[in-house]
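CHAIN AND CONFORMATION:

***
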Amino acid sequence: MSNDLIPHNLKKKVRLSRYTTFKIGGPADYFFVAKNEEALISVLKWAKKSHIPYYIIGEGSNILVSDEGFRGLVIQIKNNEFTISGREIMCGAGLPLRELVQRSLTKNLAGLENLTGIPGTIGGAIYGNAGAFGHSISEFVKRVEFLDPVSLKIKSCSRKDCQLGYRNSIFKDRPVIILSAVFQLSILKNRKEVLDTVKKIRLVRLHHPSRNCAGSIFKNIPVRQGDKILSKVPPLCMQYGEIKTACLIQELGLKGKRIGGAAISEKHTNFIINRNKATAKNVLDLMDLIRREVYEKYKLVLETEIQFVGFK
């Protein structure tokens, strides 16, 4: 591999535990921070010529990396541009979601306040259609711009074409890279009411783990009226038209359960915490335990919300 082909600032053998909120994960063969589209295209060209697979991350808040790491190139998206025109905001995929929420309120625009406290970047939030308290980011997306890594051309899709469903999007099925998004918000008319909502959500978030975790491990389960399975579910576990997975886990008495260095959070039971040098295998074993117990008790199959990196 010729040195003149290697992109500037490309790093080798970087431990991914440093770049994930779980603080878990072995090394990536190569690691690159892409601060703009030109840098991203440059490193993709290099990876393509060198026949090296790649994986995209933002703040690493919704992923579990294998103990063996990733055999290839990990690209961290760091473009964080932010512009505003009337009720529309355009921002880069690398901008933290918390900054978008905060800046929109500063500019007297409302709508995103229910997403207060969700970790990660705009790219990751759109990729998994992040949401909370009965709302999701899809409600405010107008357009998403992305890079086709095959043609290296920049394309865009409307909210409808992005197929933003419950914790899902078309981007999970297509090997493209989200670059930026345009959001259409509402004029903030009642500042006190919106700020009260933000304050209440922040108080709720205080009861969530904030370190050494990857956010919610499993998806909540949409409620279908008339489903016979609902008779097995405690009524207190249903909210916002969903069965709350954390509630099911808590009802099973699994709060605080540990395997190795990983533990089910005592604050929020849909979070697994890296208590003491947890391995990815510790986390997977704990997830398997939760799945089995939930199925045996409620006959419900849990789907994971986090992404898995470097597993065979």
Q: What stands out?
A: The chain has a mean pLDDT of 94. The chain has three domains: 7-77, 82-192, 211-309. The chain is about 25% helix and 25% strand.
